[in-house]
Each structure stands twice: as C-alpha cells, then as structure tokens.
C-alpha cells in the first residue's frame, strides 16, 4: 500500500524562548492544557485528578535514564564524547549493566574525526586506587559505532556509568547537563535502567499527586520501554512515510495485561512511549491469532498495525495475549517496536486518553498527537503558544480526552 504524509503540514513556528531550558521548582506546578472532544481549557498539572474521568487506569513507563554520555580523551589529549545507545555484547540490558571488566555498546561518537584508531580513556580514582576506563572502536556503521569498553575497577558497567557518565539531556536544550538534571530528568517512579531520554510526560508527577489520585479511585500500572536517541531524530524527508522509525525495546508483565483487561475502556497513557508500548500489544496478539506465536524476537514493524483488520479490537488483543502468557507460563513479554502512529487511518485499540508534553515541529511525536486529535493539533498548539505554555521536555503538559 502506498503511504504519503506531507511533513510540512505538521510544522509550526517554535521560538527558542518558548523551549523550557530548565524544569520548574515544583514538578506538578506545570500548566496543563485540557483538550476534551475539541474544547480547550487550562488547569495546572496538580489538578489531574479533577480533570480525568474518575476510575481511569494510568499507565507509566518506568524506564530509568542512564548517564549515557562519557567524556573521554585520547592519549594525545583530544576530547572524545561517547554516547551509549544500547548494549551490544551482552545485548540484554540487565546483563549489560551487571557485567564487570569489559562489554561493548552501540554508541554515537562526538569528535569522531579525531578518533580513527587506538583507544580513548578516562582516568579516575576509586577507594584510593587509580583506575581507568578505556574504549576502542570495534565496528563503524556510520552514525553509530560499536564501541568496546574495558576497565580496571571492581565495579559493574552500570556502576561505572553512574560514577563517570552524564545525564544525556535533549540536544535542543543547547546546554551542558547540570546537577539538577540528575534528579529532574528522571521520573519519580523510574526503576529499570536503559533509556537515553526521559519519558517526559511523567516528569510532572509527584508521589503526593499519585497518592492523592489513588485516594480518588484512580489506579496505576507500569510498562517498560527504553527510549532511544532516535526519538530526537528529525523527519528529513518531505514525505514522513519514508522516515525510518527507530527500534525500542519494551517489556509488559502478565499482571499488567490482566489489569488492562480488567479496566478495559479506561486506559490513560502517560506519555507517547507508553502509547507506543500499549499500542504495540495488538501486533503481538495478532501474530498469535494468525500464526500461533508472537515472535517477540522479531521487531514489530513500522506499519504492521495498519495491516491488522480494524475488527480486531483491543479487548480481543489483550484476551489473546493473556491466554497465551498463561498457557506458556510467561510472567513477562519482551519485544521491540518500530511502530509509527500517524494520521493515516491509525486505529487506537488500547489507549483511551493521552497525557503528553508539547512536541517539536515536524516530528513523529506530533504525528502521533495528530493521529489522536486530528487537525485539532494545530488549534491546541496555537492555544499553547498564545497562552505562554512552555514547550518540549521540561515544558508544560496536555491531557487529550475523547
């Protein structure tokens, strides 16, 4: 099927002054734009419990941002920045963070032209001992390279990143990471390390707000999707349908699938990463329905969801997944997705409502918003620009209800 999306239809003027460079002092003090079936109103994020329909199940992405940027140097003194994207060997996140001595990662290398051979290193002291972390270029794949790390300290790679790395704040902030980013570019419910970008819609939640909403009858569930640097990649082709979506790894527990089924029709996704995870589930379910197996090792394709019959509902998908997991004794499903949610007739099967920040012009995230609200995205963004809303990762929020 031929697909065309004119990305220029999803452009708007975003002055640099409207991009929030730092978070507000209080997470939940952000402004909240409420879009309810075409009607726009304005609240504060702390009012979320009064805005959403009572009894909603909110789904968080509990991924944790790793200190993925390491500043290293060649023996000659040249500064090289190594940005760890995802583990290569071992390829599993949990094992990659727990390994000692050596490992390799897929990385983006800054000042790459200065590093053609040999190693780069960072020297440091730990428990009174002189230690080093060294890196070699193992494979060159253009924008991304496979980098092999070796180190002397009796620490896991995860512990080394925590000690030596820096939080990879978004490039559009145009500043170096600071101490405040170590806590504020992380959700309060983050648990599992693996992201190089925060699921920013969740940055507004505080433990107090979550407790308050629980008291009002709201419920909460968690999925894990490790956010890759591809989330910041601009759509370069005028036809957005030609944009290759990045791959992101996700995990969903059986108990979560059961919870989604129990609260069917009342699911609010907190952030586009939660949307992408939840909306990928019907693809796995359809594979089970048609082939008997979800093939979780194979990535869910960019357009796979569009080829599933519209009659296959989200409820059927969750029932299929739950039955499969129970039959096979699976507590957790692990898969990866390249799903691209666009206004080209995408059918939301799991998600009812969306909480999300304001996204960059001509981005795949803006296409996702448009897939949900239609042409009203422009009215929403015009309102936000005219009423002093702050944009992007550290900016204000919106809740989309239909």
Question: Which helices and strands occur, and which strands form pairs?
Answer:
Blueprint: E1 31-36, E2 39-44, H1 48-51, E3 57-61, E4 63-65, E5 69-73, E6 79-89, H2 93-98, E7 102-110, E8 119-126, E9 129-141, E10 144-151, H3 157-164, H4 179-184, E11 192-195, H5 207-215, E12 219-225, E13 248-253, H6 254-262, E14 267-270, H7 272-291, H8 314-327, E15 332-337, E16 353-357, H9 364-373, H10 376-386, E17 397-401
Parallel strand pairs: 1-17, 3-12, 3-14, 4-11, 14-16
Antiparallel strand pairs: 1-2, 5-6, 6-7, 7-10, 8-9, 9-10, 12-13, 13-15, 16-17
Helix pairs in contact: 6-8, 7-8
What would your notes on this structure say?
This protein is of the alpha/beta class. It has helices at residues 48-51, 93-98, 157-164, 179-184, 207-215, 254-262, 272-291, 314-327, 364-373, 376-386, and strands spanning 31-36, 39-44, 57-61, 63-65, 69-73, 79-89, 102-110, 119-126, 129-141, 144-151, 192-195, 219-225, 248-253, 267-270, 332-337, 353-357, 397-401. It has two domains: 7-65 and 182-401, QueA-like, CATH 3.40.1780.10; 69-165, no CATH class. Helix 6 (254-262) runs antiparallel to helix 8 and helix 7 packs across helix 8 (314-327). The chain is 24% helix and 28% strand. The longest helix has 20 residues, at 272-291. It is globular and about 60 Å long. The strands form three sheets. It has a nine-stranded mixed β-sheet with strand order 2-1-17-16-14-3-12-13-15.
